[in-house]
Write a structure and sequence with these properties.
This protein has about 80 residues and is mainly β. The chain has one domain: Fructose-1,6-Bisphosphatase, subunit A, domain 1 (Fructose-1,6-Bisphosphatase, Chain A, domain 1, 2-Layer Sandwich), CATH 3.30.540. The chain has one helix and six strands; from the N terminus they run E-H-E-E-E-E-E. The longest helix has 5 residues.
Length: about 80
C-alpha cells in the first residue's frame, strides 16, 4: 500500500505514511516508510541495516531483545 492511511490523508489528517519498496523475485531488497507531516523516514535493506532519518540526521535502529514474557500485544 503506497499510501497507508488514504482516508486520513484525504481528510487532511497527519496520520498517514508513504511506503516504497524494492522487491526482487518476491524478496524485499530495500524499503522506505515516510511520515511527511513529521519530517521522518524509516529505511532499511538487506545487508544495509535500518535507519530513522529526521531532517538531515540519520540514526541506526534495531529491534529490541526478546522479552522474557511470552509475547507482546500491539493494537492499532
Amino acid at each position: 500500500d503506497p499510501l497507508d492511511g488514504t482516508k486520513e490523508f484525504i481528510d487532511g489528517s497527519e496520520e498517514f505514511t508513504v511506503n516504497v519498496a524494492l522487491v526482487e523475485r518476491g524478496q524485499v531488497i530495500f524499503g522506505v516508510v515516510g511520515i511527511p507531516t513529521r519530517d521522518v523516514c524509516f529505511s532499511g535493506g538487506r545487508d544495509l541495516g535500518a535507519f530513522r532519518i529526521q531532517g538531515e540526521d540519520g540514526v541506526e535502529i534495531g529491534v529490541r531483545t526478546q522479552p522474557e514474557e511470552a509475547f507482546t500485544v500491539v493494537a492499532s
